[in-house]
Write a structure and sequence with these properties.
This protein has 8 helices and 12 strands. With 369 residues, the protein is of the alpha+beta class. A 4-stranded mixed sheet has the order 10-9-8-11. It has a 3-stranded antiparallel sheet with strand order 1-4-12, covered by helices on one side. The structure holds N,N,N-trimethyl-histidine and fe (iii) ion (FE).
Length: 369
């Protein structure tokens, strides 16, 4: 990856912000402040957190400036403030919030003009623009969190009518055979990646099979009807034996050809067993990724716990990855329709609790060869 020039970075930061503000454009301040779910932040918190993260890294840390609002940052700390508490915090709201976003950005650009972001920069945060890439990724990942919440807002309609429109993958249930052997897993040392994707290392895999396309709504419906399993989040019976999707207050019939979304890891695992298959490990997924079609609409649950790769080093802060390592979280791979394309790469590791369904999570099936 060629590191971006300062002009290119400034333009990409502006583009990310335009996207964030466009997502929220149809909403009023009351909707931004409202708590819709104990497992999701009010949108005003996400927005303030995006600006505060920018201030913390690009203005305070890199630019050695004092914060604009004193101790405010502690209310935007994701670890200190669990999601269910965020509606009550003394965070910025309404006009003050929008002013803060703009003021931070002004200072960010001022600092950007001063710093050395070349390959020989002394500060590893700045070297090849790492911290700017991290900022972009952070804002874009919060766009997806915001879209999770926006599914719960009755009558929400994105400004971009293409956002959220799914494609039916090519029909058929073709399975690909992947040879056993050594596979390189993770991100190379150069270029932006999160600490949890490093170091690059090799893994020995036994031969396996993996479906070319993710599990469809048709298959999931059959699983629900046969086993009495819970339907995915946002599915309701239409009264005539079919199902409708109820996100954003809609009642559209489900499209059987679309990939299923909003299922938990437990449900994904149960469906795999019902189908006589299993979930792929995250390493199998990564090894197969050049051959997978129909990715980028639903995150794909894997059988893997979110663990450190051998030789892992936390960078630039342990609260991004390290504090989540262990057997509590399962890894998802790929990306969903709500994931901005710049965030997606074969080595990217997403994770969540196995009972969670508010994320845009789907299923791909694998089997031993
Ligand atoms: C990688 C999606 C699990 O939302 O907790 C955002 C991304 N980290 N801000 C999360 C993240 C810090 C993270 N996930
Ligand atoms: Fe964050």
């Amino acid at each position: 990856m060629t590191p971006s020039s300062k002009e290119a970075i400034a333009e990409r930061l502006a583009e990310a912000r335009r996207f964030t503000l466009e997502l929220l454009q149809p909403l009023d301040d009351e909707q931004l402040n409202r708590v819709y779910s104990p497992i999701l932040s009010p949108l005003a918190w996400d927005l303030g957190h995006i600006a505060n993260f920018e201030e913390l890294w690009l203005v305070q840390t890199v630019g050695e400036r004092e914060p604009l609002h004193g101790e405010l940052g502690r209310f935007y700390d994701a670890i200190e403030n669990p999601r269910k508490t965020r509606g009550e915090l003394p965070i910025l709201r309404d006009t003050e919030l929008r002013t803060y976003l703009a003021d931070v950005r002004e200072r960010t650009l001022e600092v950007l003009a001063e710093v050395d972001i070349g390959p020989a920069a002394e500060n590893p945060l700045l070297r090849e623009g790492f911290v700017y890439e991290m900022l972009l990724a952070h804002e874009q990942q919060h766009n997806e969190t915001m879209l999770q919440l926006l599914q719960m807002v009755d009558g929400y309609e994105p400004v971009d009518p293409e956002l959220g429109v799914l494609r039916a993958p090519e029909p058929g249930s073709e399975t690909i055979s992947i040879a056993g052997g050594e596979y390189e897993i993770g991100a190379p040392a150069r270029g932006f990646a999160y600490d949890n994707e490093r170091p690059l290392h090799s893994i020995e895999l036994a031969p396996f099979q993996i479906d070319r396309t993710p599990v469809s709504n048709a298959t999931y419906t059959q699983f629900v009807e046969e086993t009495g399993a819970e339907p995915p989040l946002y599915w309701e019976r239409d009264g005539g034996g079919g199902w409708v999707l109820t996100n954003m207050g809609d009642r559209d019939p489900i499209n059987p050809a679309h990939p299923v979304l909003h299922v938990s890891w437990h449900e994904a695992d149960a469906l795999a067993r019902w189908a006589g298959k299993r979930l792929p490990s995250e390493f199998e997924w990564e090894a197969a990724s050049p051959q997978l079609e129909g990715t980028g609409q639903a995150w794909e649950w894997t059988s893997s716990d979110f663990l450190a790769y051998p030789g892992f080093e936390a960078f630039p802060y342990p609260e991004y990855s390290q504090v989540f390592f262990g057997d509590a979280h399962k890894v998802l791979r790929g990306g969903s329709w709500a994931t901005r394309r710049a965030v997606m790469r074969p080595s990217f590791r997403n994770w969540d609790l196995p009972e969670r369904r508010q994320i845009f999570s789907g299923i791909r099936l694998a089997a031993d060869a």
